[in-house]
Automatic annotation (TrEMBL):
Record-given protein name: Uncharacterized protein
Amino acid sequence: MGLFSNFFLVRRLRKGPTLLLPYVPDTEAVLNTVRLHGPGARPYGDGLKVSDNVWLRGPITMTPELAAKAGIPAGWQVAYVAANIDDEEGGEYDRPMAVAAGLAERLNGQVHPHAPDSPADLADVTGGRRVPVAELVELLADELPGLTATSVNPVITMLTSERSPIEILVEEDDGEVTYEICVDDGVQGPDLVGTARRAALAIAERAGGIARDHNGFLIR
C-alpha cells in the first residue's frame, strides 16, 4: 500500500473519521481546500499536516478488497484518514472529524463510518469590530427578518428572529468581539446552514472579521 501496513490501514479506515471520494481528486485542489481550514497546511509524511495536531493521511486507493475489509461500501475510489498527530488537546477546530466533515462537504464526499450530528453552532465571526445592534438588524433584515436584541449580561447580547430559529450571540471580551450564529440543539430546518453562513459572511464584511463554518472552514 505504501502508506502503512495493510492491517493498520484497514483498522484506520474502519475507525475513521475517513473521507471517502467517488473520484480521484487533484492533489493541489485538495491542498487548497484543506487550507480553508488550516492556512498553513502542507505536505507531511504520507499526507497533509492540516494544523498543529491534525494529520490527513492519503490519498488511499480504495480497491474492492480493501473496501470490503474496512467495511466501506463499494463505489468509492479514494480515501483520506484524518487523525491526531499526538494525544494533546487541540483548539476548537483542531479535530479530525471537523476536517473530514468539512472536506466531505466541499469535495462531494462522505465521512465514514458516520457523519457528525447536525451542529448547534452553525458559524462564527472573529477578529472584527463590534457592529451596533441597530446596524446588525438592518444588515440582516433579508436573511433574518424581525431581529430583536436582548442583553444577556454586560458583555453578551443575543439577537433572535421572529421567523427563524437562528440566534446570534455577540460577545465582547477584552476588546475582542465574537459573533456566534447558532440554533438550539436538535433544531433542523430548510437551509438553516446556508442562512447562517450568509449571515456570518455579511457580518464579517461589515465588521472586518473572519467568517468560519462549524467545522472551522473559511466561508467564501
